[in-house]
Design brief:
The protein is of the alpha/beta class. 17% of the residues lie in helices and 29% in strands. The strands form 6 sheets. Strands 14-7-8-3-2-21-22-1-23 form a 9-stranded mixed β-sheet. Helix 4 crosses helix 5. About 23% of the residues have low confidence.
Length: 384
Amino acid sequence: MIRIINANVIEGLRSLPEKSVHCVVTSPPYWGLRDYGVEGQIGLEPTPEEYVEKMVRVFREVRRVLRDDGTLWLNLGDCYASTTKGTGGKSKVQNYNSGSFFNPRKFNHGLKQKDLIGMPWRVAFALQADGWYLRSDIIWAKPNPMPESVTDRPTKSHEYVFLLTKNPKYFYDANAIREPAIHAGEVVLNKNGKNNQMGRYGQTRTGFLKDGGVVVSGYRNRRDVWEIATQPFPDAHFATFPEALVEPCIKAGTSERGCCSECGAPWSRVIEKAKVETNYDKPRKRATAPGAEVSKTSCFVTGDWHITTTKGWRPTCTCNAETVPCVVLDPFGGSGTVAKVARDLNRNAILIEINPAYVEIARNRLRANEQLFENVRIECESEG
């Protein structure tokens, strides 16, 4: 089920019950980027401090509706302060994604011309000070960034996705987003058959042999640099989420099996590790990192490894009730990308969007293939 609330973000969040959401994936309007022409929109604040303060208020409400074991995945991009000819000396903010300018008023932010504002970290630290646990700063690396005309600094090609939680212990399904190891199935030994601590560039060590060999697993825990191309959507606004960026957030932050229909507790994955015997009698090739000299002592040898498989699922509560899909929330719903990915992954979704035009875009987008999914109902409501 997908629910769309056409409302101011604060009012929309206040309409939701507390601790009713398993995972929040969102990208708020960036500060000083665009005027969407809607009264009450976020991003037009005169100073960075006022923008940060508003973000803190919004995510206090998010924290109220998020379960104690829930996660928040927050995407924010940065921007530069500058002044531009023809504006009467008024300060402008240029967004590095689009290169467009926005100048609704004279900013009084106290920044120097060309300063990188550092808005993602300002918001992240403010949320941390307000009680959130800041667990990870994921780098969204864009292989196809918007071109820039600058020649006195590198072209910006990344944004941040912050992982924040309410508590030190929370639901996180690492196995749902594991990535292939670069050298799966190989073992690194030095000349004495002992563990080569440095190993080979890019590999993951997940076990040790009796005489020091390092077992390289077929998969590794996902790392915090995600190379994902931007994904245009012709009917949407300027900052459409790539679906590939949203998917791992939802997979890690919610249970594939679902949650208890009574208390909402997510089911957890039951993991089984199968150990395979390793044969490391014959060296195969020397181990070296890219750009480094070939070691005269280290070598790769053929071998096997621990194989991790999902044996099943188990409840994390004692209700003994049926399961229902977990709930994903995007308080800045935009064109509905988070809801689309959530639906594709068999999760329920709630969108809050202040702009009626984007609400209509999201409804049309989500209804395009509605007949392909069972138990899908799109509700659209307006908050007064």
